[in-house]
Amino acid sequence: MAAYDERKVWGWLFVSIGFLYFTVYFFIAIISKVLPPSNIAVISAMQNDWYYCFLVPLTLPIIVVLVYFHWLSMKMFKHA
Q1: Are the C-beta atoms of 38 and 47 separated by less than 8 Å?
Q2: What predicted TM-score, i.e. pTM, was given to this entire model?
Q3: Do the beta carbons of residue 37 and residue 47 sit within 8 Å?
Q4: Which residues does 77 contact at the CB level (< 8 Å), separation at least 6?
Q5: What DSSP string runs through the chain?
């Protein structure tokens, strides 16, 4: 029963970390752009930075292409 509890703890840890990363990314990419200009240096830097706004949306098509090439290479390896 201890292994089950340990897996449950690790699962909740990964879900919590994922939620934290999503929340921070959502704030940086979307919410900080609609806030009024700030005098706080960190928030001002986030508002003026456009890298992370485009990083995830432009990465998704590349992932689709890479998954296709991975599938294609596995098919070629299987039938070679």
Answers
A1: yes
A2: 0.61
A3: yes
A4: none
A5: -HHHHHHHHHHHHHHHHHHHHHHHHHIIIIIHHHSPP-SSHHHHHHHH--HHHHHHHHHHHHHHHHHHHHHHHHHHHHH-
pLDDT per residue as tens digits for the range 65-79: 999 999 999 999 988
For residue range 5-57, list pLDDT tens digits in order: 888 999 999 999 999 999 998 998 889 889 899 898 988 988 898 888 888 88
How many Å apart are CA 70 and CA 33, to the nearest integer? 36
The full set of domain ranges for the chain reads 1-49, 54-80
